[in-house]
Amino acid sequence: SKVPPIILNNGVEMPQLGYGVWQVPDDEAERAVVTALEAGYRSIDTAAIYGNEKGTGKAIATSGVPREEVFLTTKVWNADQGYDAALRAFDTSLTKLGTDYVDLYLIHWPLPSKDLYVETYKAFEKIHSDGRAKAIGVSNFLPEHLDRLIAETNVIPAVNQIELHPHLQQHAAREFHAEQGIATEAWSPLGQGKGLLEVPAIVAIAQKHGRTPAQIVLRWHIQLGNVVIPKSVTPSRIKENIEVFDFSLDDEDLAAISALNEDRRIGPDPATFDMS
Ligand code: NAD
């Protein structure tokens, strides 16, 4: 494969770069995911709330890539937190995905106000011990949520998928994850495209290497050790975003990107987000 794996804390290998399908409608997801698989992606990130598990599963089934070569992630939505609800939601996701296991199952948001993430995670431990999720983890968890989860459950999350890009570098979270053996996965790794890819420092590094700004940002993540799941529905960009393993940023480039941190979120604050 084009993409090297990282080894999760339970020994499972996860490609360091995958394809995210948030905001891809179900009827477009099949074509988009097939395009990604043809471009060499072997990790797909979806979620129950994205409404495209069917299209995603269909793409994997029809792509000709064996199921066991694809690392498939989905997430339990907020409304389905709780032990029994999470078990039911997992069955629904598997049915839509048309598979009998996922590689990674994540709690999408902690929802501290609902106080159900420990119970939800206990259902995840059951799913994991049944072999229906090769790894389990969380998304949008702050260190305080992880502390509690680790104290009250048995399986240390393999992954925490958090908003992370040059304008929100998440130094404290990354350090905490490293201490606990949790892989840091970056969502919106390109800062959703918007202004980030026009920042002069990034454009200058792109020119220096004869690469695109998106490739520079993705390469920065890779050299930091983050897992990334960039999204695009444009075939040329889908291909471009995986071509980041044949060049390296130097220390000066890395320092220039590190200087762009503004601790600025695009998405919601996990401490207060409670939409269900
Ligand atoms: P992203 O940072 O991947 O940016 C995607 C956007 O950037 C595209 O829509 C496009 O406009 C632009 N883009 C992509 N490639 C480009 C290129 N090569 N050149 C120029 N522009 C380009 O943002 P995202 O979609 O928010 O995040 C990626 C994935 O992360 C999602 O698809 C989803 O799987 C996951 N995610 C998870 C959560 C969560 O709460 N766990 C939240 C948001 C996203």
UniProtKB/TrEMBL annotation:
Keywords of this entry: NADP, Oxidoreductase
Entry annotated with the keyword Lyase: no
PANTHER family: 2,5-DIKETO-D-GLUCONIC ACID REDUCTASE, NADP-DEPENDENT OXIDOREDUCTASE DOMAIN-CONTAINING PROTEIN
Single GO MF annotation: oxidoreductase activity, acting on the CH-OH group of donors, NAD or NADP as acceptor
SUPFAM superfamilies attached to this UniProt entry: NAD(P)-linked oxidoreductase (SSF51430)
Organism: Streptomyces yokosukanensis
UniProt-listed PROSITE patterns: ALDOKETO_REDUCTASE_2, ALDOKETO_REDUCTASE_3
Family to which the UniProt record says this protein belongs: Belongs to the aldo/keto reductase family.
Protein name in the entry: Oxidoreductase
